[in-house]
Automatic annotation (TrEMBL):
Pfam families: Ham1p_like
Protein name: dITP/XTP pyrophosphatase
InterPro entries: dITP/XTP_pyrophosphatase, ITPase-like_fam, RdgB/HAM1
Species for this entry: Paracerasibacillus soli
Similarity-based family: Belongs to the HAM1 NTPase family.
Keywords: Hydrolase, Magnesium, Metal-binding, Nucleotide metabolism, Nucleotide-binding
PANTHER family: INOSINE TRIPHOSPHATE PYROPHOSPHATASE, INOSINE TRIPHOSPHATE PYROPHOSPHATASE/HAM1 PROTEIN
Cofactor: Mg(2+)
Subunit structure: Homodimer.
Catalysis performed (reactions): dITP + H2O = dIMP + diphosphate + H(+); XTP + H2O = XMP + diphosphate + H(+); ITP + H2O = IMP + diphosphate + H(+)
List of catalytic residues: 71
Amino acid sequence: MRKLIIATKNKGKAKEFAYFFQRYEIEAISLLDIEPHAPEVEETGTTFMENAALKAETISKRYDKPVLADDSGLIIDAIDGRPGIFSARYAGEPKDDMKNMLKVLTELKDIPEERRTARFICVLALAIPKQKTIFKIGYCEGRITMMEKGDNGFGYDPIFVPDGLTKTMAELSSVEKSEISHRKRAMDQLDEWLRNNNGEGFHA
């Protein structure tokens, strides 16, 4: 089976990507599997695309293997696109999902439901040795709730309701979430690229 390194130590994210890649007969392993104590790549970019490329290219050079990195975040219209590229650390260090959500809910406390529009974005960067980095982008449109609900997700999932639904991302099953998520939509684009290129650069 072909192998791919997922540039993350986030167990939830690693599990999602592993689930997606099973259907493509690609074994997705994470940094937790190969080097759990490796230093994280510093995200010094000013855009999601720059940060995804930094992670993918740095780790691909380190191991001389194909690497997929993502930079994902939440963009909220009513607060000028925040938390944006700072989504993971919006409430400061160390990363804390609950503190991040509470900060967002506090900033939106006077914002009515119709103005709480938001979207998750996922930028995938696929770095294959000696090839140009590939980028794919997916969005999931929705709105921010008044309070957190559900415990089946991570990040901002408990306060985000996708368009057309009444449940938060964290109230959906893994299968339901995987069909509509921003990662799924970016992965669909990556799947098309893989099929058109016959998985060039991947090895068993």
